[in-house]
Amino acid sequence: MDRNWENFLLPYKQTVDELKVKLRGLRSMYHLRKEHGPIEFVTGRVKPVNSILVKSQTRKIPLNKLETDMEDLAGIRIMCPFVEDILEVVEILKNRKDLKVVFEKDYISNEKESGYRSYHLICEYPVQLIDEEKVVLVEIQIRTLAMNFWASIEHSLNYKYQGEFPSHIKTRLQKAAESAFQLDEEMSTIRDEIKEVRKNYRYYKEDYGNR
Ligand code: 0O2
Questions:
Q1: Pocket lining: 73 vs ligand 1, CB cutoff 6 Å
Q2: Average pLDDT over residues 103-125
Q3: Which residues are in coiled coils (predicted)?
Q4: pLDDT class for 158, splitting at 50, 70, 90?
Q5: Domain 5-191 is of which CATH architecture?
């Protein structure tokens, strides 16, 4: 099929650009309120044409079905400080009026065999073009910084091995993913303990302040 990729991908680029601005704005709002924000940073990309072609072959997605069957032509990634923040971000996104969650994949509770962890929301997003509105699919991946660290490195190594890691490397990557998850859990525990100490200190001050 002779496709004008620039034209085809334009609504996806617009979607990624708009969502990056909106979600980064959300981060600033928490900052202004001086509240703990569940978003550390946001990135986004339109799937490169060569990756689209490879995925359409490996997943047997015909090129005339890309719009409906390739969910991640537009991709947004939200990185959270703590594991608990992930579900908070999921709720925030589900309550938004400018997108509709149509499908979710919880690779946090059900990590992939590779060790990959992330929460994926497949959403419909209406994008305004010159003379029409087009609803496109966008995949929003939500993960912690540690999950992102693991996934980024594993992904870049994947290119080297073209998806087929030798078994000893596969095992080490699975162990590394587990260590990353333990780190996330430890950071959450530390945070809870600090919160508790601060709460007790506040009560102590209030109590003694009244005497
Ligand atoms: P890229 O280069 O990130 O854009 P499915 O048919 O639903 O099983 P699908 O459509 O691949 O398969 O969906 P899935 O499994 O939810 O994965 C979509 C994306 O999640 C991938 O996009 C990756 O970004 C990420 N991902 C999934 N599994 C892994 C993994 O084991 N390691 C890493 N690093 N990332 C993963 P793409 O298409 O691979 O490409």
A1: no
A2: 97
A3: none
A4: confident
A5: 2-Layer Sandwich (3.30)
pLDDT at 195: 81
- Report the separation in Å between the CA atom of 36 and the middle of ligand 1, taken as the mean of its atom positions: 30
Delimit the domains of the chain by residue range.
5-191
pLDDT in tens, 186-206: 999 999 888 878 777 666 666
CA 191 to chain centre: 22
Residue 180 near ligand 1, beta carbon < 6 Å? no
Ligand 1 pocket check for 154: Cβ under 6 Å: yes
Residues 155 and 49 sit within 8 Å (Cβ to Cβ): no
For the record, the structure tokens of 122 come out as 């497949």
Q: Which is nearest to 36 in space by CA: 202, 198, 168?
A: 198
State the average pLDDT over residues 66-81.
Answer: 97
**Cα separation of 188 and 190, whole Å?**
5
Q: What is the pTM of this model?
A: 0.91
Q: If you average pLDDT over residues 166-179, what whole number do you get? A: 94
